[in-house]
Every structure is written in structure tokens, then in C-alpha cells.
Amino acid sequence: MKQPILQCQNVCFSYHNLKGETSALTNISFQITKGEFVSIVGPSGCGKSTLLSLIAGLNMPESGTITLDRSENTKIGYMLQQDHLLEWRTIYQNIMLGPEINQTITPENEKLALTLLNDYGLARFQDKKPGELSGGMKQRVALIRTMMLNPQILLLDEPFSALDYQTRLMVSADIGRIIRKAGITTILVTHDLSEAIALSDRILILSKRPATIKKELPITLTLADDSLLAARNAPEFPNYFSVLWKEISDEYDTENR
Ligand code: ADP
Hints:
Blueprint: E1 4-17, E2 20-33, E3 37-41, H1 48-55, E4 63-68, E5 76-79, H2 91-95, H3 97-101, H4 107-119, H5 135-147, E6 153-157, H6 165-182, E7 185-189, H7 193-199, E8 202-206, E9 213-218, H8 237-249
Parallel strand pairs: 3-7, 3-8, 5-6, 6-7
Antiparallel strand pairs: 1-2, 1-4, 8-9
């Protein structure tokens, strides 16, 4: 069996504040192998973003362990719902922000920035300001900025949810392709079940808070063509959707619907 790039074992976490304790995660265990695309779904407020923040190292587990494969100096890229681009900088300057802060601007990463801008269809826009771009384009710029750090694991927290429905379909499929082509291990938090099915190799379904892993659902889709909507038109798609729908709706108390 392949060596996992990330391993969570019996991870528990609670928030503490003046109002008391909020238990968010209990006994979360799973592993991810290199190059896998895994989505995390679950009821609203169950602890999905909390789990990502622990994997990113922004919070520490109360108990349990999160282990990264350090043999390759594994770096993590974290992309959030908002693009957080700096309006006064051009697209190119936004992308080069990380190397600039780290004082690691080199001819190689300048070349990488131009290659990524080209790959993502944004080369023409490198001298524009973020306000001149559409929401989908800005989200792609945010992804390039994350990719500039050369992450081995990409954490995506609802990265498409600020986009309108049609843009979301296009941008998520497009970004999914780019990530797969680059072979980057990815964990996506989403509340959009169709998006999770279309993009993932495997889906982790969390229970209501404090979250446990209810089920792991491996995804295999038969794609008829290479169009952006091929995954959503796959014959297996409706069945996966029904399974996810049932698992998640079982977690909502009737009075909370
Ligand atoms: P999800 O991403 O699944 O919607 P979150 O991980 O954001 O859920 O939150 C899980 C639970 O923890 C929620 O009940 C939320 O209100 C609570 N929570 C999140 N952040 C904090 C915090 N900083 N302090 C206290 N409670 C928090």
C-alpha cells in the first residue's frame, strides 16, 4: 500500500471561550495518499473548516495526531472562500506576493508565475488590477498565488462559494482539471454535494457536531467525453448523490430543517 502523505489519528478538538466549551471534532481518523483529491462534506457547522485549520497547523489537536509525510518536506497551501487579493497591486504583483514577502524572488519563480498565468488563461490580465477581473478569474488568481508556494497538499475551504452558480460550475471543473494535471494532493471542504462528486476520488462524510467520520465514499465516474460537465453527466452520479443526501439529511434534526 502507498505511503500516506497525510494521516489523522483519533483527532479531537474543542473551542474554549468565555461562554464555555464547544466540542467540534471527536476521534477523526483517515489518511490520504499522494495525488488523491478528497472532499469533506457534512452538515453546516459540524467542524469541516476546523478540521482544515488543524491540518494547516493553525490550531493544534486537543488529542490525537496529524502526521505529514516529511520525507519530501511537505508544504501546505491553504485557499479560502474569499480571494483576499490586494486591490492596489496588479495580478502579477498579487501572484508574486509570497516570494516577495519571503524575499525569494528568483528567475525560476518569475517564470513559474508566467507559466501559471498562461495555463490558467490569465496571461492577458497580468497588468490589470483585481477589480477589473470577474469573480471566477479572481479565484483562479488566488489559486495561482497559492500554487507559487509549490505546495504538496492543497487545502480548499469552500473556494467557489462566492461565485454565481454558472461561474461556479465552470471554475470548479476548470480548477479541478488543473489540480489533477499538476498531481497535487487536495482536500476540499464544500457544502455542494454535486461539486464533491464531480471533483473527488473519495468523499469523507462528517456527522453533525462534534464531527466524527460517518462514512468514506470512493468515487469512480465513467466519463463520456472531456467536457466540463462530463463528471456531472456520468451514469454513477445520481446514485452517489442519493447516498450523500441521505447520509447528511439523517444528521439534521427534524426541527432544524
Ligand atoms: P463547518 O465548517 O462545518 O461549517 P466549523 O468548523 O466552522 O464548521 O465550526 C464548527 C463549530 O465550531 C461550529 O459550531 C462553530 O460555531 C464553532 N466554532 C468555530 N470557530 C469557533 C471559535 N473560534 N470559537 C468558538 N466556536 C467556534
